[in-house]
Known about the structure:
alpha/beta, D-Maltodextrin-Binding Protein, domain 2
Amino acid sequence: MKKNNPPTITRRTFGASLAALPAAAALGAPFVARAQEKYPSRPVTIVLPFGAGGVADVTSRIAAERLGAKLGQRFVIETRPAAGGLTAARTVLSAKPDGYTLGLVTNGTAISVALFKSLPFDPVKQFEMISQMGTFELVIVTGADSPYKTLGDLIKAARAQPGKLNIGTIAVGSTQHLGAELFRSSAKLNIQLIPYKSTPDVTVGLLRNDIQMMIDFYAAMRAGLTDKKLRPIATSGTTRASFLPDVPTVAEAGVPGYEVLSWNALGAPKGTPQPIIATLNKAISEVLAMPDIVKRYREVGITARASSPQDVSKRFVADVKKWSEVIERAKIPRL
């Protein structure tokens, strides 16, 4: 029998064999390294719909610093303030879905969906939610010298004097303003809503007795509360706020079912790979559980609280529905 000799490999046949290999194999080790590149391998940008120096900016920078230390890359805050958070949202949603451009999504984003006739994007469908960052309640206050020492006192007076009492908030369409609208309708009160340009303007109006109560976030009123010029009479969450544990909720104080809970969350463009979402979610959960982060958030009236991506998405959709109904009931013109 004739013995089969192994084929002779020449430079030509070797080249032909190499050409027949799949492109990935031909590229060799560098391709594999890129495919398995650990996230993040370069700085990550978090785009905020608010200006520098505000509570969202400060708390985001606190979290970003710890995320960077945990994941080994810088997390850079970029502020892009504009009405309805539109500029920030556009920046994030037009970015490549690779986990290197993230955005702060808030209940304000949900309000924008309800308030604007149309948006140039659909945040419900186009954001890939990552995790909640924190929640914060509205605080209802009266002046320190006000005869209304409880929310019950104020409700009783409003019912005894229909149309005579005033609530002050900042801009129409803000969470504060819509929270006041929801309070008025939930308590079935004939009470006037007076919008001001800024929280200091509302505070002056309260101290002059132009308005009898104001609704705003704790951070905005912190100085007045600390100086005891303002008296907190209720908070808007379902449970008492950790930063004002002796102050009852609106529901406790006589308006069952009332709840306004503002929130911040991180989101990414739709299509961001799930392993990246999972990496970020885990890191955020660990950062927001750190005792010093919890303390620093509480000092500005925020409860540090992570969540699953699914929970953020559900809250977002629920808030769009809730505020759409409030806006419609209050006959606020859509923008």
